[in-house]
Hints:
- It is a single chain.
- The protein has helices at residues 7-20, 32-70, 76-85, 92-101, 103-113.
- It is mostly helical.
- It has a single domain (10-113), classed as c-terminal domain of poly(a) binding protein (Orthogonal Bundle).
Amino acid sequence: xxxxxxxxxxxxxxxxxxxxxxxxxxxxxxxxxxxxxxxxxxxxxxxxxxxxxxxxxxxxxxxxxxxxxxxxxxxxxxxxxxxxxxxxxxxxxxxxxxxxxxxxxxxxxxxxxx
Length: 114
């Protein structure tokens, strides 16, 4: 029996990877073996950095809240501890936005928990 190969699926797989490699520099965009490695690495980076982005934003929010709290004579830890005790359930993203863009609202929160 003759050997059967599925060239249609093989070509589709290659076209898919080469389409993902569009915009890459040099042979990374049009040579199958190089493009496949480049796309695989890019996918790994994108997967990893979707998680890293969450960490970075949390760190940024904490820095902004800390700056806002210190402007009112409290440290970040004192501010967050008092916030939890007083039962105000605002997350760090909202608090950071208030501290950055609405300082009067942030000051009202600080006065409430003092």
